[in-house]
Specification:
Layout (H helix, E strand, L loop, with lengths): L2 E6 L3 E5 L5 H7 L17 E6 L2 E2 L10 H5 L2 E3 L4 E2 L3 E5 L13 E15 L2 E8 L11 E5 L8 E4 L10 E6 L5 H8 L6 E8 L12 E6 L3 H14 L5 E7 L8 H10 L3 E7 L7 E2 L2 H8 L7 E6 L1 H13 L7 E5 L22
Parallel strand pairs: 1-7, 14-15, 14-18, 15-16, 16-17, 18-19
Antiparallel strand pairs: 1-2, 3-5, 3-7, 4-6, 8-9, 8-13, 9-12, 10-11, 10-13
Helix pairs in contact: 6-7
The protein binds FE2/S2 (inorganic) cluster.
Length: 353
C-alpha cells in the first residue's frame, strides 16, 4: 500500500512505496534522518510516531526498549508503514536535517595511537559515556586541560559507528602546540576530553550525481568519513577521490583505500605526489585536474585541505565546468574554538552523505 509519511510539526509529506522502509523514503526525498547501522541495532534512527501504523520488523531490544515502544517510538531503518498516512515527530519546524547539539568535555580513551604515515598519527578514541553523535564530515575539538595546549579542530575520519569510536588523523606541525602534544605526550590508554561535533561539511543523502573528492594531506579525514558513509549506504553514481601527499612516505590509508576501490566498483582513487616523481601521478591537484577531469558539469565537488589547496582546487574545478553552488569546501587553518550553536540550530547540508 502506497503511503504518505507526514513530518510534524512542518506538515511536509513524503511518498513511501510499500517496499521502502520509512528511512529509505525519507532519504529518497532528501531528509537526512540520522542513522548508522540501518539494521535495527544502534537506535540512531529512533523517531516518535504520532499517528498511523507500521511494522517494526526485527530490531534489538537495546536499540528500542519496551518503554520506547510504549511511548510510540520506532526505528525508521526497519519500519514499514501499514497505514495510508504515518505521522512522525520530526522535531524541527521546517523539517530540515537536524544538527546534533555540540557537547563539551566528552570523555574518551585513546585505544590506539599509530604512526600511519610520515608525520601523521592516527588516534582511535572510544567514548567512556554516551557516544558523540555527528554527521560524517564534521569535526571535534581536542586539546588538553589546564596548562595543556589549547583545543584544536580535527575531523572525524570515519562514519559514525555503533560503539562510538572515532578516528582522527593528526599531522605534526612544528609550530603547533596541540599537534606536538598529541604526537609526543598522549599515549594509548590516556583519557582525553573532546567537544563537538562542529562543522557543516556534511552530506545530503538525496544526492544522485557524480562526485569528485579532492583531498590534500590530512584533509583526507573528512573525505574518508563522507565516503565511508556514502559507500556503506549504497551510493551508486561514480565517486572519484583524488588525494595529494608530498611524498610516498606521507600517503595515509593506502590499504583502506585499496580495499574500498576493490569493494565498490563505482569508486576510483588516484594519488598524486607533489614532491616526488613516481610511476603514478605527480604534481598538485589543481594542475592535474584539467587533464584528468576536463568536464565537471553536473558533478558535486568536495574539497578539504589547507586554505591554499582548497582555493586552488576550487578555482580549477570551476575552470573544468563545475558550478560554484556544487563545490563544498573544508579548510584547515588556525581558528578559535567555535561558539556553541543553539540546541535547535538547523542545518542545510552539503551533498554526499
Ligand atoms: S539506523 Fe541503527 S537502528 Fe536504525
Amino acid at each position: 500500500m502506497a503511503t504518505v509519511i507526514r513530518l510534524q510539526p512542518s506538515g511536509k509529506e513524503v511518498p513511501c512505496s510499500e517496499t521502502q522502509t520509512v528511512l529509505e523514503a525519507l532519504e529518497h526525498a532528501g531528509y537526512a534522518l540520522p542513522n548508522n547501522c540501518r539494521a535495527g541495532a544502534c537506535g540512531e534512527c529512533k523517531c516518535r510516531v504520532l499517528s498511523g501504523t507500521f511494522e517494526q520488523g526485527f530490531v534489538m531490544d537495546m536499540a528500542l526498549s519496551g518503554e520506547d515502544r510504549a511511548a510510540g517510538f520506532g526505528l525508521m531503518c526497519m519500519a514499514k508503514a501499514t497505514s495510508s498516512v504515518l505521522e512522525l515527530d520530526y522535531g524541527t519546524a521546517d523539517a530540515q536535517p537536524k544538527l546534533y547539539p555540540p557537547r563539551e568535555g566528552v570523555p574518551f580513551v585513546i585505544i590506539d595511537k599509530l604512526m600511519r604515515a610520515l608525520g601523521v598519527v592516527e588516534l582511535r578514541l572510544r567514548p567512556l559515556a554516551d557516544r558523540l553523535r555527528y554527521w560524517p564530515g564534521q569535526y571535534i575539538m581536542l586539546g588538553g586541560q589546564g596548562e595543556a595546549p589549547p583545543p584544536r579542530p580535527y575531523s572525524m575520519a570515519n562514519a559514525p559507528r555503533p560503539d562510538g569510536e572515532i578516528t582522527l588523523l593528526v599531522a605534526r606541525h612544528e609550530g603547533g602546540q596541540t599537534s606536538k602534544w598529541i604526537h609526543d605526550v598522549l599515549a594509548e590508554g590516556d583519557e582525553v576530553f573532546v567537544s563537538g561535533p562542529y562543522g557543516t561539511f556534511i552530506g545530503d543523502v538525496s544526492l544522485d550525481a557524480p562526485v569528485l573528492c579532492l583531498a590534500g594531506g590530512t584533509g583526507l579525514a573528512p573525505i574518508l568519513a563522507l565516503a565511508d558513509a556514502a559507500l556503506r549506504r549504497g551510493f551508486a553514481p561514480p565517486v572519484t577521490l583524488v588525494y595529494s601527499a608530498r611524498t610516498e612516505a606521507e600517503v595515509y590509508g593506502r590499504g583502506l583505500l585499496t580495499y574500498w576501490e576493490r569493494r565498490y566498483p563505482n569508486l576510483t582513487i588516484k594519488t598524486t605526489l607533489t614532491r616526488q616523481r613516481t610511476d603514478g601521478y605527480s604534481g598538485r591537484i589543481p594542475q592535474l585536474l584539467e587533464r584528468l577531469y576536463p568536464d565537471l558539469a553536473g558533478h558535486r565537488v568536495f574539497i578539504a585541505g589547507s586554505p591554499q589547496f582548497v582555493a586552488d582546487c576550487a578555482a580549477a574545478a570551476l575552470r573544468c565546468g563545475a558550478e560554484a553552488r556544487h563545490i563544498f569546501t573544508e579548510s584547515y587553518f588556525p581558528r578559535a574554538a567555535p561558539a556553541l550553536p543553539e540546541p535547535s540550530r538547523l542545518l542545510s547540508p552539503s551533498p554526499l552523505g
